Amino acid sequence: MDWFYKFPSMNDDTLRALKKMIDDGFREFTRAWGASIEGFFSPLQQFLIWAERFMTQTPWPIIILLILGIAWAGSRSVKIVLGCLFTLLAIGYFDMWTDTMRTISMIFVCTVLSIAIGLPLGIAMSHSNRVQRVVNPILDVMQTMPSFVYLIPVVMLLGIGRVPGLIAVVIYAIPPMIRLTNLGIRLVDRDVLEAADAFGSSGWQKLFKVQLPLALPTIMAGINQTIMMALAMVVIASMIGVQGLGQPVLKAIANQYFTLGIFNGMAIVGIAIIFDRISQAYGKRLQKHQEIAHG
Q1: How do residues 163-185 score in pLDDT, each as one tens digit?
Q2: For the whole model, what pTM was predicted?
Q3: What is the pLDDT of residue 293?
C-alpha cells in the first residue's frame, strides 16, 4: 500500500541524469552564445548608463524642477505637484538622493523598453486571435513565476550587473503593458471603426488615428502597472548588482539595520506614489477629454 501514500515519482538516477543533461546543455549554450548575447545588449547598457549619469550628475534643483514640470503636465494638480516636491526634498534630506536617482533612471529605461516591446505585441494580439492564443499562456507564466526564478537564466547568460537586472525587471513588469494594450484596442466601439471604414481609412490610419487614441486611457493604466511592478522588482534585482534603493534595503536585511531598511523602503514607496499619481491623473484627463469629445 506504499504506492497509495507516496506519489510514484521518477527514479532518482533518471531524474539526476535529466537535470544534469539540461544544466549541461544550458552551460554549453552560454559558452557558445553568451558573448554574442552580451554584445546584442550593449546599446541597452549604454542607454542605461546615459540615463543614470543624467539623473545623478545633473544638479538636484534642475531634477526637482523637471519632475515637478512632468507632474504638472500630467496631472494639472497643485496637490500632486506639492506632494512630489515634499517627497523629493525628504529623500534628499535623508541622504538617499543618489540611490533614488539611480532607481528612477532604471525605472525610466525599463518603462521605455516595456512600451517599445509591449505596445507592438499588444497591437498584434488585438488584431489576431491566433497571436492572442499564443501570447496569453506565455504572459500567464511570466506573471505567475516567482520573481527570483527570472534571475537564474539571466545571470547565467550575462553574469552580474545592471543589464541582467534590467532584463529581469522588464520580463517581470511587461505583461500588464501587453495585456492592457490588447484590451484597450479591443474595447474600441465598433460603430467608430465602421465610421472610419466608411470614410475610407486604411488599416494604419484606423490604428493610429482611431484605435490607439481611444485606447490611450487603458494603455496608460498598463504603463502605470508596469512602473509599479518594476519598482516592486527593484529590491530583488539588487541581488545581482542593480544599484539604487534596493541595495541598502538588501544590506539592511542582511545586517539587521532597521532604520536603513525603513528609510530606503519609504523612499521606494514615495517614488512609487509619485509615478502612480501622475500616470493615473494623466489617464483620467485623457478619459475626460474623450468623453467631452464624444459627448
Answers
A1: 888 888 898 899 999 999 999 99
A2: 0.86
A3: 57
Domains defined along the chain, listed by start: 49-294 (1.10.3720.10)
Half-sphere exposure of 150 (CA within 13 A, CB side): 22
pLDDT more than 90, % of the chain: 37
Q: At what angle do helices 97-127 and 162-173 cross, to 10 degrees?
A: 50
Query: What would the pLDDT profile of 213-269 be if each residue is shown by its tens digit?
Result: 888 889 988 999 999 888 888 778 887 777 888 888 888 888 888 888 899 989 999
Give the three cell numbers for residue 250.
Answer: 538588501
- Band (205; pLDDT cuts 50, 70, 90): confident
User: Euclidean distance between the first and final Cα of the chain, in Å?
Assistant: 72
How long a stretch of residues is the chain?
295
36: which 3 cell numbers? Answer: 554574442
Could you give the CA distance from residue 279 to residue 261 in angstroms, rounded to a whole number?
27
Is the separation of the CB atoms in 253 and 239 below 8 Å?
no
CA separation (Å) from 230 to 68, 154, 288? 22, 16, 28
